[in-house]
Amino acid sequence: MPRVALVTYDPRPEPSKDRDLPVLLEALRAAGAEADALCWDDVEADWGAYDLAVIRSTWDYSWRAAEFLAWAQKCAALTRLANPVEVVRWNTDKRYLGELAAAGVPVVPTRYLAPGDPADLPDTGEYVIKPTSGAGARYAARYRADEREAAVRHLARMHDEGLTAMVQPYMRGIDASGERALQFFGGRLLHASRKRAVLAPGTAFDAAKVAHPDLEPWTPTPAELTVAERALAAVPDAPELLYARVDLVDGEDGRPAVMELELVEPNLFLFLHPGSLETVRDAILAAAHRS
């Protein structure tokens, strides 16, 4: 009987936002596995008691990135961690986009402003500022060139907290064709989804945002699949990935480009794709048996 830990976060006093977790737990248990949901920062969790720990919804980690990475290192020393700790470490810092671009993968053009760097912001068009360590549009906002004062305040707040900022052009293709999320599990395409723009004009960087507005199933195009596969192939050292999500938008040339490569704790959207549950369950069980 394989023993599987699904790693999540402690949302209290709010309810958990992971709608897939109870469904996946039930599916694993029904298949004969001993499956538990554990918070990554639970000091009493015995990670060594499990054959496999699958990071599922550690959705508070970006606020505590150093602490989370220390946990991942510790957990990986006690059991098999999916995805591998080296992947987690690489993917928690979105400066990986620069590495993907260097490998020839189409990505959203990105500049990085670390604490101490001058506020080198665009003087034309719209652009987005967000942290290199973030999730759910945390500390992200969209600006016009004439909103420089607000953007500089945003940068200062992030830099005061030791965060490095990403500056990207606002990809206008999102307004027409949305952002597409291609989900892979067990090395194969699982399903795809599309959402509409998250960042509305005039929304403050510290305001609450809907992470996946108007989410709907999507059939990826051959061009989208090609870019997603190129991005996954460019992950350093070609690790074995249990799961991956590639978020794509249309660039100025109308072709898909990588907005984000999510290898840590992507929402699986099983509530939108219930037919994928069996594939996810079987891939997790197979990984647990290989440990």
Structure in words:
With 291 residues, the chain is α+β, with helices and mostly antiparallel strands. It has 8 helices and 13 strands. The strands form 3 sheets. A 5-stranded antiparallel β-sheet has the order 11-10-9-12-13. Strands 2-1-3-4 form a 4-stranded parallel β-sheet, sandwiched between helices. Helix 1 (21-30) crosses helix 8. The radius of gyration is 19 Å and the shape is globular.
N- and C-termini, Cα separation: 13 Å
Mind summarizing the main beta sheet?
A: 5 strands, antiparallel
The Rg value, from CA coordinates, equals: 19 Å
Q: Count the beta strands.
A: 13
Helix content: 25-40%
**Strand arrangement across the biggest beta sheet:** 11-10-9-12-13
Could you give the topology of this structure?
Blueprint: E1 3-8, H1 21-30, E2 34-39, E3 52-55, H2 65-78, E4 80-82, H3 85-91, H4 96-102, E5 111-113, E6 126-131, E7 141-144, H5 148-160, E8 165-169, H6 173-177, E9 179-185, E10 188-195, E11 216-217, H7 222-233, E12 243-250, E13 256-262, H8 277-290
Parallel strand pairs: 1-2, 1-3, 3-4
Antiparallel strand pairs: 5-8, 6-7, 6-8, 9-10, 9-12, 10-11, 12-13
Helix pairs in contact: 1-8
